[in-house]
Amino acid sequence: METNNPFQTNPVQTDNGKTASIISYFWFIGWLIAYFAMYKDNKTDLARYQLRQTLLFHLVTTVISWGLGILFGLVLFSTGGFSIYYLLRAIQVGFIILWIIGLIGAINGEKKPIPFIGERAQTMFPSI
User: Fold this and answer.
1) Which region holds residue 80: left if phi is over 0, alpha if psi is between -120 and 50, else beta?
2) Measured on CA atoms in the order 31, 54, 40, 23, is the torsion positive or negative?
3) How confident is the model at residue 56 (pLDDT cuts 50, 70, 90)?
4) DSSP string, the chain
5) Distance (Å, rounded) from C-alpha 52 to C-alpha 12?
6) Tens-place pLDDT, residues 32-48
7) What is the mean pLDDT of residues 27-31?
8) Which of 24, 36, 52, 69 could link 125 by a cystine bridge, Cβ 3.0 to 4.6 Å?
9) CA angle at residue 63 from 58 to 68, to 5 degrees?
10) Which residue in 73, 100, 77 sits closest to 87, CA to CA?
11) Is the pLDDT assigned to residue 7 strictly greater than 60?
């Protein structure tokens, strides 16, 4: 007799890594959840590809946003040039567009690289 126990210890794996791929796009916390809670038990090629890509994407966006924010803030306060603020916002909009491109690829279950980042991430993080 088979029972439908939702708390069974060894559920049938029907996920092909798509869920971990999607969750990894939601900042570092999502990446950590996707890596430790989903990828460690169910290592798939799609999840591996997307985790590498999103790790580099999150690192690049954080470093550039914080770095340029601090640099532009210093220039803004010293010169009063408010047009630099708009340049930072344009860069952030570019990151949002790249994020959407990557997220759509993850939702569709594709190994679609994020422009400028995706292919490089595959060689930078071979241990994932």
Assistant:
1) left
2) positive
3) very high
4) -----TT-SS------SHHHHHHTTSHHHHHHHIIIIIITTS--HHHHHHHHHHHHHHHHHHHHHHHHHHHHHHHHHHH--THHHHHHHHHHHHHHHHHHHHHHHHHTT--PPPTTTHHHHHHH-TT-
5) 26
6) 999 998 888 888 999 99
7) 90
8) 52
9) 130
10) 73
11) no
**Predicted local distance difference test score (pLDDT) of residue 95:** 94
pTM listed for this prediction: 0.79
Judged on CB neighbours under 10 Å (0-12, 13-18, 19+), 5 is exposed
Locus of tokens 């954080």: 62
Q: How many CB atoms lie within 10 A of CB 53?
A: 28
Please tell me the total number of residues recorded for the chain in this structure: 128
CA distance 56 to 27: 11
Q: Percent of the chain beyond pLDDT 90?
A: 41
Phi then psi dihedrals of residue 111, to 5 deg: -95, 65
